[in-house]
User: Fold these one by one.
Assistant:
Number 1:
Amino acid sequence: MKINIITFFWSNNLGALIQANSLKSFIQKKSNQTVSFNSYSPKNLIIRERMSQINRKNFKVLHKVFFKKLKNFYWKKKIMKCDYPNQKNLIYGDDLYVYGSDEIWNYQNPFFGLDKFFFGKDNEKKKITYAVSTGNLDYKKDQTVENLKTYVKNFNEISVRDYESQKFVEYCSGKKPVIVMDPCFLTNLEENIKINDNLKSEIQRFILIYGDYFNSNQIQNIKKISKNNNWKIISVGFYNDWADMNIISVNPLDLICFFINSKLVFTSMFHGVMLSYKYKKQFWISEDPYRIKKLSFFIDYLNLKNRYLENINNQQIEYKKDENKFLEWLDLSKDFLEKHIIV
């Protein structure tokens, strides 16, 4: 049996690479079958990934971005075992197709728009979704959604990762899909980590910054915490000129290593929240409007509404308090995949 995953596999977004590789690893382990990524990607998305972050005037940053891309090119080819993306005509020759995770159903995304490939067009094989997302889609804004109802109904099983995606599927199919965890929770990539040179003895206490959506008040609060605790501020994967260090050239395992070893995390990224929770970090969220909908269920379900930077205080996350809820949700997510990856 052959299983094919349809997602944004050729990304420079480290979180996207972590979720894609985690999904593949879990399916491969549980099914003991051949699992691969579908090589199709919209042309505009390929261009966007190729050009992202390279329009900086700072040569030193540009140099680091280049090496980040090179490092992650190696990761995608050697670790994830991806083929370079293309727009070739598709032949659906595998036995099962898994669509997701990521916001592949956000047809208002300016980088790829409406691409019915991601909705299973012409694919008559068994197909399911895992943690598929509509991102910040406003599907009532136009009539496009009416033309997608048939495609959504044709999936054998659907799972989503947030409230808005759940509402979208229910609107299209009349059925309320289950909300599952992001794939990064399904496997433990950290088992392959060797301590990064950047985390040797001279930097054992640091604040991790993951993202670049922070206003001046938030930055001042972060600097104050840094000063009071004598912790360095390290921005990883993104350039923030107010950080003590900017470490741009990292791959997914490097990023996980920084999360594990950090004292405190400030993030504006979806997977910044996911990884912070996975590794039981004390963290704060800068609310990026683009990611509000994607985070909604996770924040509500695990009682994290007080983790937004506007509410910053000394309150700690009590991970033991919601541990049972978390584990029940994790079991539900794993069970969904294990049940439906059998052809």
Number 2:
Amino acid sequence: MSRVGKKPILIPANVQVSQEGNRLTIKGPKGELVFNVPAEIAVELAGSQLHFTPKTGESKRKLTSSQAKKIRSLWGLSRNIVANLIDGVVNGCEKKLEISGLGYRAELQAGDLSLSIGFSHPVKVKKPEGINFSIEKNIITVAGIDKGLVGQTAASIRQLKLPDPYKAKGIKYLGEIIRKKAGKKAAATTTGAK
């Protein structure tokens, strides 16, 4: 039994959910998103609630433990993805990234992102459909209605210049704590003093 999967999703009044088989279309004030629920999971739209159940009872054959585990994990995953989509079309999602380092900066060029992060050339990041970039001082905001796409875009930007543990330079999530390491010189002086 999936504790997450068995919880019903309450649909807000300003959101419309339509179902065609296992395809859910979610419309809200900020936009429209579509999700295809895996074939192993059944979706029931009852009034203003969505219920998810695994389709294990329909098959006459006995499931192995790995198949049952996969269905349980898909059950909870599907429910959470749809809950995030409903939240996204109502409130939207955003991730903030912080650039730190001497001469490191970000600029918007026709909606795309241009990063000067210590390479010999500026790094261009094309704006995916459904994502908006905004920059304030050294903070990049990645915003959109699809939480998965926002998180993936922010992670790929962060991957361009991971934070350095020695000088704390690079791109990190806002509020992320990077534990600074002592360099070789500092480590040699502390061990030599004993």
Number 3:
Amino acid sequence: MSIESPDRVGAGLHRIAPVAGVASAVLTMAGYLTIGEFPDSSTPASDLPGYYAAHGQQVTLGGTFLSWAAVCFAIFGAAVWARVHRSSAPPVLAGAVLLGAAAATMADLNSGAVYNLLGELGVDPHVTAPALQAWHISGSAFGVGGGALLFLLGVGVAGIAYRAVPRSLAWTGLVLGVGQFAPHPWGFYASLLFLLWMAVAGVALAVRPDPASARPAEVPQPVG
């Protein structure tokens, strides 16, 4: 019986980790589709108890999907950071990618938790309609995803200037990052396209080996 070396196992994990981007995109879409048509932030408080009485369970399940999507994104983000870190890109770009991934992960985890909570609060007879509305607004409102923006900008610059990732991913990521600032509904569409980018990037980075990992290790030369 043979045991694989830690280096070989680590290289395998480094190779397949980006595929978590595909899982994150799929789980995110599953979460949105499960929740379905969600009342916007201007919905009267008196209408919300009836909505949650009919859809509370699917909102909770959708929140669970979104929470798992956030975990998968954290793995994907770490894999992208490792690739940028191993490239010739300056440390500040690797730091931006890591910080952006961490911030986006926390925002996604919070979003999933809010939907989970809303599914439970919506059917709780002891929760007043105004209190439910306050939580509902936090789940229905849409703003600029600062974490995703920082992540995409870091990946874009690192890919374009230092070839840390394929330039096609870098340019499209940069465009989507800037698109986060577009007014509604274009910013929302940019966030949906980010899911597609993440899935494509996950496959591309898994299929295309990391140039840094393919370089032979330097062998110390004797002196004298």
Number 4:
Amino acid sequence: MSGAEQLLKARRGVYKSRRMSTSRRRNRRTFSYRAGVRVLDSVLACDATSGGDLIFVSHAGALDERGAHGLPRARGGRRKILTTETTLALLGAAGQRLRPHALTAAYGRPFNLGSMRLELFRSGHLPGSASLLCEREGQRIVYAGAIGAMAPAGPGAEDAPEIRVAEALCIDGTFGARRFLFPPRAEALARIRGLVADSLAAGRPPVVLASPENLLAIGGGLGSDGIAVRAHRRVVAAGAAHRQAGLPAPALARFSGKLAAREALLWPPDARHAAILKTLARPVFIFASGWAADPATAASMQADAAVPLSTLADFDGLLRYVKATSAREVAVQHAGDDELCRELQSQGLDAYPVGPPQQIALF
């Protein structure tokens, strides 16, 4: 065999090996879970407490305090954190500790990292929150994570999640069930303000139960109505973090057991039965959460009123987002009873849950 024939045979062998490797990769699912979402055959892990050399943090609430404290240990100090500058700021002390290890990127500014081309783009969930597009070897992979409401065109549409076309998609399915259909956010906020005003007019102290992100929006609206607000220490801390990050936040005083005549209380749902609330005389509890659309969860709050309000997309919004990406493989985090997966499977998509069993959260 001549030298040219040997070279041609070797090249064919390399091409065949690459083709078989690509075929094996395509026959395997792109996403898996181990202390976070891992991307197949890459150093990339998303919203993870451990993993490869690069961990993408999609928003400030993606990791609990313990998880954020554990980063970026291991791998000989090579591990980097990819996020936005706003998310890093909202992480507070944990963000300051992570800053020497952080790669911060702006929305819509693609960059190369090794063999991957990465782009952060707006997810519409929280200030600074982002989704991630990863392009490698001709494949487009999107880790959407938690996305916000799919707003129609018009005022407010600039805050809606952006779309990137992809072959494989991972999305948060917290509200991926048909019972989760939310009214427009402005309408829900107006209803809450009305309930607070009615409570005060009746001489009863209003207590709004919601996530810190929703409570800051509610507190801002109440302030414009001339209603002062007190809050749980975690909500006060969230407001301080927003101001330090250059974001608007209402003036909040920490609750010490008393409310004045024109004051409302902002309180996290997981502290609904705190002993300090018993100091209030005939309080009116208003549960404002996406989980307010779930009868069992709403009942457990023992609230006088329940208003569906969430920074996350509802069932219809999730379906619209997946369709807009044209993805054929869809991994669903926090899949609950798998209703979203089943609906996507009925449309011919390879939809599957990814992650550990999910406990119901209240926000």
